[in-house]
Amino acid sequence: MTKQLSRTIDYYVWLMSDWAYLGGVRFTQIAARHGVRINHIPMRMQDVYAGSGGVLLAQRSWQRRAYRIAELKRWRAKLGVLLNIEPKFFAADVDLASCMVIAGQRRQLPVADFVNAIMRAIWAEDQDVSDPDVLITIAERHGIDGAGLLEAAGADVVRAEYRDNTARALAAGVFGSPFYAFAGELFWGQDRLGMLEEAIVRSGAGDLGRSSDAGSASGVVNKRGNWRRNDND
Fold first, then answer.
1. Per-residue confidence at 73, pLDDT binned at 50, 70, 90?
2. CATH among 3.40.50.2300, 3.20.20.80, 3.40.30.10, 3.40.50.1820 for 8-202
3. 9: phi then psi, degrees, rounded to nearest 5
4. Could you say which of 32, 51, 69, 192 is the most buried, measured as most Cβ atoms within 10 Å of its Cβ?
């Protein structure tokens, strides 16, 4: 039975995030399963790092970079998700893509699949998401007017919201991607999605029943292991 709820998950995401990509489909499935709204908050990770003491990947020690690769390989195998460890366009400029997501959400468009498709284009399809034509094609594939969304992404109010998302993230206690905020709790990393779902259930917003047709059909993953902290973005 569908539950009518007004609950929201604030989804702080850097569209270049490998870990957000790995958890993206499962996250949207969880939200759909429990009727919980996703509030997408795209952010510039380099700015969030600057305000929270984070270290950009290229500046991390070789030990941390090597372990990140090992963890990506483990999660790729565990989840059965396509993932290029070293994608062709890394690190792509995702500012335009982020503004398109914001513009779409402001228009109350269903942007969750668009967001996941942008990350899949980077990490599985070797596409350059800094290219407006690529973004238009991705949007159109998901039933969104790509050209119209591209134009809306240039609006001052959209650009301002994107800039303000850094301060919003830092104020919320965010320091990486993906971060999920629900009912006063923060969850860092796709390896905490099981805990996020349990929090939704505790809140009375859902149950842990499984539905084979929940969420997107593309890239469906139903595994829920709660794992030790990995080096999320």
1. very high
2. 3.40.30.10
3. -105, 125
4. 192
